[in-house]
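Let us work through a complete example step by step.
Step 1: write down the sequence.
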Amino acid sequence: MSDLCAPGFPEEEVRHRARAGAAAAFPPPGAYGRVLFGAEHGGDARPDAGRDLLDGLRITPPVLMPQRLARLIDLGREPDYRDVELTTEIGGFTSSLPVYVSALGSTRAAGGDLGLALSRQAGALGLPMVIGENVVPVNGYGRQGEAADRALLGRLRAYTGQLPDGRGGVAVQQSTEDADAEVWNLVYSDPAASPLLASGRLAFELKLGQGAKPGLGGMTVLDAEAATRVGDRYGLDDVFGDGRVLRSSTPGTFTAEILRQQIRLMRNNFPRARVWVKLHPGRDVAEAARVAAEAGADAVTVDGAEGGTGWAPGAFPDQVGLPLAECLRRLAAAGPPPCLLVSGRMWEGGRAVKSLALGARAVGLGRAALLATAEDPQDGLIRFAECLALELRLLISALGKYAPEALDRDDVWSPDFPGNPAAG
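Step 2: predict the structure and record it as tokens.
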């Protein structure tokens, strides 16, 4: 087990799932017959102080279930949760679950053996995976003698080496410094990516922002030697006074027209790759998503303010950006893009089902994927995904439905409170 930690995140619950797998969806079996289980708060969905609005919603099964009847007729027997089909189309890829692995870039937590172990397990699961920004400018591509465990090519090979036929796919993210390093050109022309291109399982993701620090670029902490090596590519600031420096990426500049032209350029220059766009939780997130979708993006990712796996200024996580629930409300009001992907504090089935019901096609695992892999580099993410899949099947079946795309806003409820995404 690594020393990776995630303050404020349900770390121990994630690690338990990485160890116990599907059994973690239930109370300890030894408590059966001795402990009476029930709601602790009487079903009150009003959020406590500091509680996430999405967590405050309740999933609301109906009594009368016409879709269950249709499934019964189709099967010739009474359906149960095992009849829920979780295979989902995500941004042009076929995923075994309505889940993808969120962008993990050049931060130390996602590098080395942990990043490779995560890539292998994501591939084995058939889940789409995003390779985040700044990997090439900081660690290299992998063909010039760079450390294979930290280079982009190492992650790509680890993932594709386990990928089953017809499942999954890789989205390679690019920001300003990546564009300078011509990352997409490197990947698109690399023989190692040819199988992904040939099978339609390669995407390029244009990054406009991230949930942990909306309006800023990526940030990491470097020692003096590493800072000297990348000083010509990044902004460096000696804020710590101990030899370590802050390395900052530029966030990029976008208007509606710049975004349209960038997507058109991607489609023209890389016609065999899918086009993904990642947005931070800005106040105009619905407008930005609309522009991206109309310009031809295959998927639009919205990273809620709860998201984040890297390094961020302390003022940002709790005070900057819209909560994911509010992003979903605004997107629903404006009409969400055809393939909306969302991330932000995803770790269990209830939060995922609420997001799917409110318009998302799939949800992204960031911290949860890293923690599960850190708990067991061989099978931790696989066991975690088994537990998540069981919860998804149980919850979707309880709603009388048998596929994630059947979920809708009627499946969630909460008392009226400001920002309630289920109101109206």
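Step 3: interpret the result. Residues 380-398 form the longest helix (19 residues).
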